[in-house]
Structures are given as structure tokens and as C-alpha cells.
Amino acid sequence: MTAPKGKFAWTATVGEKGQIVIPKQAREIFNIKPGDTLVLLGDVERGIAIPPKSAFDEMFGLAFNGKDVD
Question: What is the pTM of this model?
Fold first, then answer.
């Protein structure tokens, strides 16, 4: 089965300390670098999503009177 263009699926193994390694291809596609901050969103029924913090920067800025959030 071929995935639709722009859609991907990977697996990651959870280590003993609860850490996961983001697959290299995913890091390259999404330009994830060491030290980047990611946000983990969880839903008991739907699972976990891990968008980059930058995906929320504009929303956070608007919520806090247009000020940038570090």
C-alpha cells in the first residue's frame, strides 16, 4: 500500500527512561534539530500528537496580547 503524498508513518521504541527517538526521516522532513522544543498533546481516545512548539507560537502570541512567547 502506498501512502498518499505528504503522509507518513513511522515507529519509535520507548526506552527504559521513557524516551523515544524520532526517526531520522521524520526529523529531516520536519526540520527537527537537537534542542528543539516539541509539544505533546494527548487524548485518551485518539492518542498522542507531537507538533513543534512553533506551530503554536502565533496562537500563544495572540492569547498573550500579541507578545512573543519564548
Answer: 0.66
